[in-house]
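Support request from a user on the community tier.

User writes: "When I paste my structure tokens into the form, the page sometimes reloads and wipes my input. The last time it worked, I copied everything first. Here is what I submitted, just in case something in the input itself triggers the reload:"
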């Protein structure tokens, strides 16, 4: 509604301005025509006077020529050229004046003055008269002695003043007299037009001003009340009174603004309520997070303790093969020369120690690469049955020394028909680590069972032993690097605690998963799952 009022007020003001512009335009055109007429009248008068003066000077030259008073031909030619130019200019001015009066007559409904047409006819006669004067003056010669001057002079005056039987002198003098009367009349008409235009412009400007003032007062009165209500509402919100609502009264755009304002206030009130609740929840979360950070600090302290233990374990692991290698070398070098076979045995033992030493170093490098996300896999088609057989054979070598048996058993499918896209060496290493842990922490005479089955397109390899097991509080830490449980340290003093972390890194690199479940003194079960994925997909070959 208020927008409509504004549109109507604006349209009214624009209409008034357009009317004013129209009146000014029409009045300026009329004044411009009068001004042109005034200038043309003045110019015509000037040309008539100049033409009359040039003709008079030619009369003087003609009298000098008749009396052989050294009349110059150059003076004659210049005066004739000037008369010709005056006549041409006069003809153009007369035509322009006639055209202008035709426009004024058509617009204002007035008659064209008779002298306008007469001036056009005079300008036409002048061309013929000037040509006749030129011809006669070119033939004019000084009078012979005894010749009668009066008759010759009369004949010259007829050439100068008569054209087509009409007296040009009378016509020109009459035109000059008329133009002298027209010039002040034209100037007065121009001034009257300017005065009228000024009066119309002032009147229309006054009407526009009055209309603008009335519209401004009306719109201001209609605008002030809703703005006051809106201002009151904003001040209430600024003071924190979010329950304040603006009354709806004007039934226009301001009511819609007030509705949105009330909705905003209600939303702000709800947001404040939610913010208070969120602040309370945040305080509770901060308290909870503080407890977690305190627990994390304690965990970091325990990790630092494990780091110290790790350094001790690494030192022991690296020192043992290094000491063995050094001892073998010193024994070989001590005393007298020994048989070649004895040196060969010593070198074989040294090679074995170096292999053990290199294995520890390789494990540490693999852990470092996995931690830096630089563990590189070279996937290829791998038959899972062969992979498990190789890992089981490696584990049987260790199991034979510890009197632990490896038992392969399949629950559902024949692994000879299952292939994987995997890095065979790395995946074999992960399986050997799992089997090696199962053998090392089994009791004498125990059995490590290896089984597999397919679930949802994924192969699961399960390694279960009946060894010492892992305490429940230590299960979440089995994949942490360099962590060894209490039972593991008691059962075997050797070991670095990085095997399962290496196995986990390898399985994760194959987009798989490894889980550990254990019951103390009953055994441990490790489950390795290799999912079906792009570039690491499971392929089942069903052969007849």
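"...and here is what came back when it finally went through:"
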């Amino acid at each position: 509604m208020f927008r409509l009022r504004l549109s109507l007020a604006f349209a009214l003001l624009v209409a008034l301005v357009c009317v004013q512009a129209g009146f000014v335009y029409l009045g300026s055109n009329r004044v411009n025509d009068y001004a042109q007429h005034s200038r043309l009248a003045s110019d015509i008068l000037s040309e008539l006077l100049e033409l009359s003066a040039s003709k008079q000077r030619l009369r003087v030259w003609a009298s000098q020529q008749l009396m052989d008073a050294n009349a110059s031909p150059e003076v004659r030619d210049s005066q004739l050229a000037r008369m010709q130019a005056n006549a041409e200019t006069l003809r153009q001015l007369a035509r322009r004046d006639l055209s202008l009066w035709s426009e004024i007559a058509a617009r204002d409904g007035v008659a064209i003055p008779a002298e306008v047409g007469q001036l056009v006819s005079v300008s036409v006669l002048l061309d013929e008269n000037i040509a006749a004067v030129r011809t006669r003056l070119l033939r004019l010669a000084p009078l012979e002695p005894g010749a009668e001057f009066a008759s010759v002079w009369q004949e010259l005056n007829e050439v100068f003043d008569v054209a087509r039987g009409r007296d040009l002198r009378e016509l020109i003098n009459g035109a000059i007299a008329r133009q002298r009367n027209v010039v002040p009349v034209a100037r007065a008409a121009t001034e009257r037009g300017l005065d009228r235009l000024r009066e119309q412009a002032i009147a229309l400007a006054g009407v526009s001003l009055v209309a603008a003032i009335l519209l401004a007062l009306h719109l201001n009165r209609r605008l002030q009340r809703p703005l006051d209500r809106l201002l009151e509402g904003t001040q209430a919100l600024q003071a924190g009174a979010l329950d304040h609502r603006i009354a709806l009264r004007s039934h226009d755009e301001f009511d819609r603004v007030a509705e949105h304002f009330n909705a905003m206030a209600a939303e702000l009130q709800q947001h404040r309520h939610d913010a208070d609740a969120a602040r309370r929840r945040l305080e509770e979360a901060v308290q909870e997070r503080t407890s977690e950070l305190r627990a994390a600090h304690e965990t970091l302290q325990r990790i630092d303790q494990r780091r110290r233990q790790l350094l001790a374990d690494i030192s022991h692991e690296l020192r043992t093969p290094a000491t063995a290698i050094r001892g073998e070398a010193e024994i070989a070098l001590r005393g007298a020369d020994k048989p070649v076979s004895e040196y060969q045995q010593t070198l074989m033992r040294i090679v074995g120690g170096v292999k053990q030493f290199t294995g520890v170093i390789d494990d540490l490098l693999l852990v470092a690469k996995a931690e830096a996300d630089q563990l590189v896999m070279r996937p290829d088609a791998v038959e899972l049955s062969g992979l498990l057989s190789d890992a089981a054979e490696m584990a049987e070598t260790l199991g034979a020394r510890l009197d632990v048996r490896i038992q392969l058993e399949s629950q559902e499918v024949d692994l000879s028909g299952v292939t994987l896209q995997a890095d065979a060496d790395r995946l074999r290493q992960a399986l050997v680590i799992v089997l090696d842990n199962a053998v090392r922490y089994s009791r004498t005479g125990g059995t490590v069972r290896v089984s597999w089955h397919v679930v949802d397109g994924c192969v699961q390899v399960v390694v279960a032993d009946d060894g010492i097991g892992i305490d429940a509080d230590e299960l979440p830490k089995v994949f942490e690097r360099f962590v060894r449980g209490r039972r593991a340290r008691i059962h075997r003093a050797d070991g670095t605690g990085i095997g399962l972390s290496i196995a986990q890194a390898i399985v994760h690199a194959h987009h798989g998963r490894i889980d550990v479940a254990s019951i103390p003194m009953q055994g441990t079960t490790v489950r390795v799952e290799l999912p079906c994925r792009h570039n690491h997909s499971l392929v089942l070959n069903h052969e007849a």
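Agent notes: The reload is a front-end session timeout and is unrelated to the input. The chain is about 70% helix and 10% strand. The radius of gyration is 62 Å. Escalated to web team.
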